[in-house]
């Protein structure tokens, strides 16, 4: 029966190439946008190289200091000392890593200028993250304790800095801002969208200019808390929060007196959204309503369009429906036929969208728009799309089908 | 009023030629009430279309009210249809989304200059009064019976006060009581001076007209003046 | 005839509801997109107010060094000035042109007040960035000894605070005196709107605000840049030295604006093509369905041209319904001042969006209505 339905659907599609085209265009356009979007969101928020354990990580990105009247507010990353004292010593996490966000710098090779981003990290950084070492190895506690001037660089930086790509960069010397460092490892780089791990050159936190010696609360450092498993995440949050709550208030640090201290430890998505929406409830409201509106338009417009075309087309086929009804096909069968037809065309549209998204994602990855971009169509993205496909098919199938079932035989036959 | 000279009509498709009308000569005087009869496919409707300027003959000449329309272009033909001719169809052809009075007004909309706004309304109301439907002006066609629908169509045909009324099986979709009602209205219109040409299958309807023309296989095979039965 | 078309559409409003929603939604999308584009084009057309080619921003960080910072910064300043490749040097706060940081503050004069972009820069700033003064003069080192802090404001700030009065000599926020006015100053690049700006003389004896803006002579290359970094790092070991070319930072700032606009443009473009195709299909179908009516109208005296005019007229009436609803929504943006944009931007966007919608529906109706005009009345009337 289903095969028969599909056969009929296929014939109907071929009989009206123009309308088939309109329908497919609408479906595949919408789904492509949706899939590229989800793929981008997955790229931003999912657990990907080198933060493959993101799903069981907590991020401590900023400290917010307020006075009790809430008139002034001070926020930003913390000092190495503060994080060592309050985060590093936590009991529950598997490991805790402290590092800076990236800062920019330049290196010069002959008459060439290489823009680069540097990051200062502790040894645990390489355990918490999952960097792939193409050459050499990371620095460890001993290297750091020894105060050696060493660096881990990315393959991309190696390509820019060294002429001979065949030769290993390990043991070679790089010069940045008049200081010399010995390369001890080369990693595959991280995309710029992952600011906790992205850089071109990684230094131990004891390297010059890292400012790890600062004694106040505030500084340049952030932390990643890696839980042993997902269940531990809330436990760690509470544990960390307890410690922060025990800091006596009011306190003075870096010349700023404050009564309230907040140091959120959050999963990545929460942290990211908090970063964007650091502007109070009004702005948040506006931001979300804007997103909702855009999404509504993005999905709603093609959907209305599809329903419109389908509703109009039902008349075109009214006589066929009349004949079928006259020969005794029950309304239910006809409605099913129409739904199957719509779902069928939606799946074809979905397949086209899949191919289009694949091409667009490949283009984005290759364009260098985001260095080391690794957008993929993964299973979850695909499943979401298929689900959306189905909703679309039913939405544009059910409404016209309901309308059609109300047509009387005579009326249908007449037109 | 209507003169057809040596009319021939051929329908051509890529493969076949169909001769719909051949060698038709016909002259209709003002004030006549003519019925056209013949079996299905004999060319009755084609003949009516030619008289109504909805179609062009393959050969021959059509005159309406003394005007030879052979060289006329779309705009002039439309003007003639609008001013001189009123149409009535078997299937009424009312626009379901417009109220009765709006349907009746349509011909006046295509008339430039002399009928505007309120006067259009007034003319439509008069036409509806003539067919006895002034109490149904705000109704929609879907709310009317077949006979009422056809009366609306007649009101629409006469609203522009044309000289000629062309009726294509006006009673074909109606039962005999309603059919007689329609015939009565047509006869009244004829008495008022309108020239009426009616295609019909119904011998009794045809007998109520002045002149009966019979068509067979596209040729004129009979043309007889009938005894007046109405007076 | 128009009232006739209104009746046709109005009496079928239920069947047309979805179509009206579709046109309404397209209008809203267009309105949003065009507001964005008009806003940016308007900004872009306003002069920047300074030049940036061959200007480098050298960021300095003293890190763990805490002794004698002002003197050291001064030495670096002098060293930079001494290079033959350097035309001019100016010391400024971190929010130098095209940088990602900004500083705002509220200033007032008598009862009027405004938010200004707040720049702390030295006496050479206007020279280094080639900013012409509209009135008065740029402050000099000697000005700082007076009772008031000497400041320069841009014309926008002058308008906000003094309207048409002469700003020179006026006191702002109790302790600042205007001694000069520049034209525009759009610190974040061409796409930034023309905001009020205030330049306050930099105190060379403090530890902060030590970004050096260096205008090098044309043709200076990375060799010199490397040399500068090397020299400066050697002068102050432990300091970070970071060089940004303003042309690069400008590109970054532009991308921040352009990338979202381009993505929105592409997506909206496809959406509208989609809608146009759908509309075209629907109109085609509706004409196929209304062959009888077309035949009838021809019989009643409509010309072929009259028929096609009617169909285009109908879609216009439909679009007008949708646009009226759309305008009702769109008008809220300027009325409620949602995004703090000039009203003119919204009005322009509305007008263009209305024009484009009429254009699209006309284009979509053109071919089907011509088909309708070619329908043979004799055939259409006898189809049933």
UniProtKB/TrEMBL annotation, chain A:
The keyword Cell membrane applies. It is found in: Cell membrane. It is a multi-pass membrane protein. Its main location: membrane. Pfam families: FtsX, MacB_PCD. Residues 20-233 form the MacB-like periplasmic core domain. Coiled coil: none annotated. PANTHER family: ABC-TYPE MACROLIDE FAMILY EXPORT SYSTEM PERMEASE COMPONENT 2, MEMBRANE COMPONENT OF TRANSPORTER-RELATED. It comes from Spirosoma utsteinense. Residues 293-408 form the ABC3 transporter permease C-terminal domain. It comes from the Bacteria. Keywords: Cell membrane, Membrane, Transmembrane, Transmembrane helix. This is ABC transport system permease protein. The chain crosses the membrane at residues 18-41, 285-307, 343-364, 376-399. InterPro entries: ABC3_permease_C (IPR003838), MacB_PCD (IPR025857), Macrolide_Exporter_MacB (IPR050250).
Automatic annotation (TrEMBL), chain B:
The lineage of its organism: Bacteria, Pseudomonadati, Bacteroidota, Cytophagia, Cytophagales. This is ABC transport system ATP-binding protein. GO terms for molecular function: ATP binding. SUPFAM superfamilies: P-loop containing nucleoside triphosphate hydrolases. InterPro entries: AAA+_ATPase, ABC_transporter-like_ATP-bd, ABC_transporter-like_CS, ABC_transpr_LolD-like, MacB-like_ATP-bd, P-loop_NTPase. Keywords: ATP-binding, Nucleotide-binding, Transport. Pfam families: ABC_tran (PF00005). Residues 2-229 form the ABC transporter domain. It comes from the Bacteria. The keyword tRNA processing does not apply. Coiled coil: none annotated. SMART domains: AAA. The keyword Transport applies.
Automatic annotation (TrEMBL), chain C:
PANTHER family: ABC TRANSPORTER PERMEASE YTRF, MEMBRANE COMPONENT OF TRANSPORTER-RELATED. Belongs to the ABC-4 integral membrane protein family. The chain crosses the membrane at residues 17-39, 258-283, 315-333, 345-367. It comes from the Bacteria. Residues 266-376 form the ABC3 transporter permease C-terminal domain. Residues 53-222 form the MacB-like periplasmic core domain. It is a multi-pass membrane protein. This is ABC transport system permease protein. It is found in: Cell membrane. Its main location: membrane. The keyword Metal-binding does not apply. The keyword Cell membrane applies. Keywords: Cell membrane, Membrane, Transmembrane, Transmembrane helix. InterPro entries: ABC3_permease_C, MacB_PCD, Macrolide_Exporter_MacB. Pfam families: FtsX, MacB_PCD.
């Amino acid at each position: 029966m289903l095969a028969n339905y599909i056969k009929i659907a296929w014939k109907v599609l071929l009989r009206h190439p123009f309308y088939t085209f309109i329908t497919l265009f609408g479906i595949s356009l919408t789904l492509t946008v949706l899939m590229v979007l989800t793929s981008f969101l997955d790229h931003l928020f999912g657990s990907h190289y080198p933060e493959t354990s993101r799903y069981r990580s907590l991020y401590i990105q900023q400290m917010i200091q307020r006075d009790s009247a809430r008139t002034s507010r001070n926020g930003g990353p913390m000092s190495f000392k503060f994080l060592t004292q309050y985060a590093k010593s936590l009991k529950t996490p598997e490991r805790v890593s402290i590092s800076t966000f990236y800062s920019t710098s330049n290196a010069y090779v002959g008459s060439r200028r290489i823009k680069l981003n540097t990051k200062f990290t502790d040894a645990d950084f390489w355990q918490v993250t999952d960097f792939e070492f193409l050459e050499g190895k990371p620095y460890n506690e001993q290297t750091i304790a020894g105060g050696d001037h060493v660096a881990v660089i990315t393959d991309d930086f190696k390509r820019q800095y060294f002429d001979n790509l065949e030769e290993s960069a390990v043991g070679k010397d790089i010069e940045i801002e008049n200081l010399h460092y010995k390369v001890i490892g080369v990693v595959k780089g991280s995309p710029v969208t992952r600011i906790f791990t992205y850089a071109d050159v990684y230094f131990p936190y004891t390297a010059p200019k890292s400012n790890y010696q600062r004694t106040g609360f505030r500084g340049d450092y952030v932390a990643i808390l890696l839980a042993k498993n997902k269940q531990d995440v809330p436990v760690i949050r509470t544990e960390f929060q307890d410690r922060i709550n025990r800091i006596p208030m009011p306190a003075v640090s870096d010349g700023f007196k404050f009564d309230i201290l907040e140091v959120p430890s959050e999963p990545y998505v929460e942290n990211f959204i908090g970063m964007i929406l650091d502007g109070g409830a009004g702005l948040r409201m506006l931001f979300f309503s804007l997103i909702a509106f855009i999404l509504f338009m993005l999905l709603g417009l093609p959907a209305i369009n599809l329903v419109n075309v389908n509703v109009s087309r039902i008349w075109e086929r009214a006589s066929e429906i009349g004949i079928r009804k006259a020969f005794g096909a029950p309304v239910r069968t006809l409605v099913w036929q129409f739904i199957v037809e719509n779902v069928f065309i939606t799946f074809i549209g979905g397949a086209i969208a899949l191919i289009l998204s694949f091409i667009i994602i490949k283009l984005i990855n290759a364009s260098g728009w985001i260095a080391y971009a690794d957008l993929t169509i993964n299973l979850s993205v695909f499943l979401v799309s298929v689900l959306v496909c189905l909703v679309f098919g039913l939405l544009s199938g059910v409404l016209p089908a309901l309308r059609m079932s109300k047509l009387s035989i005579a009326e249908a036959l007449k037109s | 009023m209507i003169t057809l000279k040596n009319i021939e009509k051929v329908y051509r498709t890529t493969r076949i030629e169909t001769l719909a009308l051949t060698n038709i000569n016909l002259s209709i005087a003002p004030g006549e009430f003519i019925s056209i009869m013949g079996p299905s496919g004999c060319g009755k409707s084609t003949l009516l279309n030619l008289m109504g300027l909805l179609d062009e003959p393959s050969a021959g000449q059509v005159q309406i009210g003394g005007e030879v329309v052979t060289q006329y272009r779309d705009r002039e033909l439309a003007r003639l249809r609008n001013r001189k001719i009123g149409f009535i169809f078997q299937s009424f052809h009312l626009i379901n989304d417009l109220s009765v009075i709006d349907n009746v007004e349509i011909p006046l909309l295509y008339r430039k200059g002399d009928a505007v706004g309120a006067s259009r309304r007034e003319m439509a109301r008069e036409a509806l009064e003539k067919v006895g439907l002034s109490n149904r002006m705000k109704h929609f066609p879907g709310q009317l019976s077949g006979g009422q629908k056809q009366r609306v169509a007649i009101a629409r045909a006469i609203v522009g006060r044309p000289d000629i009324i062309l009726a294509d099986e006006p009673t074909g979709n109606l039962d005999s009581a309603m059919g007689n009602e329609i015939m009565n209205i047509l006869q009244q219109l004829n008495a008022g001076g309108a020239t009426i040409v009616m295609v019909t299958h119904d011998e009794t309807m045809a007998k109520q007209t002045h002149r009966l023309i019979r068509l067979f296989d596209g040729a004129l095979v009979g043309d007889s003046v009938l005894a007046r039965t109405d007076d | 005839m128009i009232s006739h078309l209104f009746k046709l559409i109005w009496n079928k409003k239920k069947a047309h509801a979805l179509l009206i929603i579709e046109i309404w939604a397209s209008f809203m999308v267009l309105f949003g997109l065009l507001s964005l584009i008009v806003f940016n084009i308007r900004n872009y057309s306003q002069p920047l107010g300074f030049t940036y080619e061959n200007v480098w921003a050298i960021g300095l960080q003293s890190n763990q060094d805490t002794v004698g910072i002002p003197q050291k910064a001064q030495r670096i300043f002098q060293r930079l000035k001494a290079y033959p490749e350097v035309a001019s040097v100016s010391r400024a706060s971190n929010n130098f042109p095209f940088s990602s940081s900004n500083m705002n503050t509220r200033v007032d004069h008598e009862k009027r007040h405004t938010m200004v972009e707040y720049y702390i820069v030295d006496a050479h700033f206007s020279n280094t960035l080639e900013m012409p003064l509209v009135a008065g003069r740029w402050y000099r080192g000697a000005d700082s000894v007076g009772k008031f802090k000497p400041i320069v404001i841009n014309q926008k700030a002058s308008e906000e605070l003094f309207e048409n009065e002469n700003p020179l000599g006026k006191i702002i926020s109790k302790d600042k005196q205007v001694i000069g006015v520049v034209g525009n100053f759009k610190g974040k690049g061409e796409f930034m709107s023309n905001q009020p700006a205030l330049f306050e003389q930099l105190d060379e004896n403090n530890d902060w605000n030590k970004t050096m803006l260096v205008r090098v002579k044309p043709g200076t290359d990375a060799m010199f840049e490397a040399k500068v970094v090397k020299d400066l790092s050697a002068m102050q070991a432990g300091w970070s030295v970071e060089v940004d070319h303003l042309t690069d930072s400008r590109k970054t700032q532009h991308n921040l604006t352009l990338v979202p606009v381009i993505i929105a443009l592409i997506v909206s473009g496809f959406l509208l093509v989609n809608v146009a195709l759908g509309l075209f299909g629907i109109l085609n179908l509706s004409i196929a369905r209304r062959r009888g009516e077309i035949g009838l109208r021809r019989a009643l005296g409509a010309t072929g041209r009259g028929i096609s005019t009617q169909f285009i007229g109908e879609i216009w009436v439909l679009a007008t319904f949708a646009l009226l609803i759309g305008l009702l929504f769109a008008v809220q943006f300027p009325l409620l001042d949602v995004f703090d944009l000039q009203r003119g931007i919204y009005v322009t966007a509305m007008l263009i969006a209305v024009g484009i919608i009429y254009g699209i529906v006309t284009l979509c109706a053109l071919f089907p209505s011509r088909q309708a005009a070619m329908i043979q009345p004799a055939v259409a009337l006898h189809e049933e």
